[in-house]
Amino acid sequence: MIKNIVFDLGRVLVDFVPDGYLRSLGFGEATVQALQEKVFGPYWRFYDRGDFASITDLRDFLVEKYPEYTAEIHRTLRTDWVRMHTLKPDSAAYLHELKKRGYRIFILSNLAKESYEFVSGYDFFGEVDGGVFSYQERVIKPDEKIYHILLERYALLPEETLFFDDNAENIAAAQKLGIHGILFTTLPEAKAQAEKLL
Description:
By secondary structure, the protein is of the alpha/beta class. The strands form two sheets. It has a five-stranded parallel beta sheet with strand order 5-4-1-6-7, with helices on both faces. Strands 2-3 form a two-stranded antiparallel sheet. Helix 1 crosses helix 2. Strand 4, helix 7 and strand 5 form a beta-alpha-beta unit. The N and C termini lie close together (7 Å).
């Protein structure tokens, strides 16, 4: 019997679309592809893990690594970059519905401090019973440790827990621990799968 619902944030409850954001800044396709790889590529995971204390630290690191993109990196990682995190209202409405139905709601997200400070202002956070965020724990999905932190901190039983995430590796890691996992592609598909378990 499922009692706990765990949501990822990015691309599940909140949109995070780097290529769309980069195009909105007026970059051409070649630059969009380059910046997606250099800015939002492997080093972004270190930022989510808290290895960089702020976006400024990440920006300085990237500029030193890719000096030929100095202007573009500064333009991309400007002070209001966090606004690229936009609410997915249908997903937030589903969270609200599940909460009203009596399920406990949790967040498990690879998320940097500045991203957390921005997205935690969305109303759905008021309905959440707890959360584990990579920058606070200094560990990111799909590392098994972050799932253990969630389960132990909130006394969740894996077999009573359902997890939505947009990344197949993260779902596989959860399932390995006995958590029910649903790969989030679209909300209607995710809901259809979830309702078979609820």
